[in-house]
Structures are given as C-alpha cells and as structure tokens.
Design brief:
about 180 residues, alpha/beta, four-stranded antiparallel beta sheet, 10 strands, binds inosinic acid
Length: about 180
C-alpha cells in the first residue's frame, strides 16, 4: 500500500496502518464482549463513514448481536462541518428496552453523537454507549464521554477506512492524514 497518496494536489500520508487498525479493532471487540456478556446489544452504524469499521468490529465480536444503520446529513463535499445535523435515514429497529451501541467512524465536533444520543435516549433504551474508531482531541463539544475509542488523533483532516474526501477514497485500507502545508 502506498505510504503517500495525492488528492487534488494535496498529499496525504499513512497515519494509522491496516495492521494497527486490525489490532485495535480486536481489542475493542474483546472489551465489548466482556461488557455485554449475556446481553444482545444492537450495533447502530452511522452511515456512511462507519460502514467498514462496523463490518470489521462485529466480525470480531462474539456476543449475540443485531445490527442496524442510521444516516445523518454529512459534510457534503466540505472539509469543515456546517454545524447542522439532520436525520436522513431513520433506524428500523425498536431501541426501547434494548442495549444500544452506536458505531461512529470519527468524532470531530461531537455534534453528530450529541444529536444521536438525544434522539436515541428519547426512545428509552436500556443502555446506550458509543464506540468510535477515531476521536479528535480537543474539539468535541459534548458533555458525555465516548465509551470505546480506537485512536485519539489531533484535529486534522483524515481519510480512508470509511472516511471520505468529497465522497471518494472511503475504500483506502489505512487511515491517511493530510500533510500540513509548508
Ligand atoms: P462531527 O459531527 O463533527 O463529530 O463529525 C461527524 C462526521 O463528520 C463523521 O462521522 C465523519 O463522517 C465526518 N468527519 C469528521 N472529521 C472528518 C475527517 O477528518 N475526515 C473525513 N470525515 C470527517
């Protein structure tokens, strides 16, 4: 796999390798297995960015589980959040009385997880936790903690392993970070 890729004349360097991701996903799954022993959680993937992470995560988890997806309005083609979150695809499952684990690709401003938390708590789940592959340090404006974090990263723009650059490059196997401008 290339260590550097160039997108629209912008170089991106490998930041988290596929091996590092694989190891960490297994650790997160083992932790979730321990915490949910004897329960049947519903994993809720937040589309589109979490589709690869949730696929890898649930295949490492061994507790019985269900899987559903929701979709929020995205950044579109912008690299900066518009600050507005809207539901684009609702859940199909009933969350009332269930153990819910929301799966995010990245928590950046925290607006999405904040919105999702309020939305799901409204339906009275038995419990609600969040797992994210990446957490940008310093930025999240949330007054609750993210229960399972793959990697804490500085507030820089990253792509790959589900994360897009103008909807492209989600299929990169590693996470790449935009090289700071000289
Ligand atoms: P938040 O609401 O600002 O926490 O961000 C939510 C969504 O923005 C994530 O689920 C991603 O889809 C997208 N996002 C945030 N940071 C990045 C990034 O560095 N690269 C690509 N997408 C990002």
């Amino acid at each position: 796999m290339a260590d550097t890729i160039v997108v629209n004349n912008d170089p991106f360097d490998v930041y988290i390798t596929t091996d590092q991701i694989r190891v960490r996903v297994k650790e997160l799954a083992a932790q979730i297995d321990r915490d949910y022993a004897g329960k049947v959680p519903i994993f809720i993937g937040v589309l589109n960015g979490s589709f690869i992470f949730i696929g890898d995560l649930v295949r490492e988890v061994t507790v019985d589980c269900e899987i559903d997806f929701m979709k929020l309005s995205s950044y579109g083609d912008a690299k900066i959040s518009s600050g507005e979150v809207k539901m684009v695809k609702e859940l199909n499952c009933q969350v009332g009385g269930r153990d819910i684990i929301v799966v995010e690709d990245i928590v950046d401003t925290g607006l999405s997880v904040d919105y999702i938390r309020k939305h799901i708590l409204n339906e009275n789940p038995s419990s609600l936790r969040f797992v994210t592959l990446l957490l940008k340090t310093g930025i999240p404006k949330i007054d609750f903690s993210i229960d399972y974090v793959g990697f804490e990263i500085p507030p820089e723009f990253v792509i790959g392993y589900g994360l897009d650059y103008a909807q492209k490059l989600r299929n990169l196997k590693a996470v790449y970070r935009q090289r700071p401008h000289a």
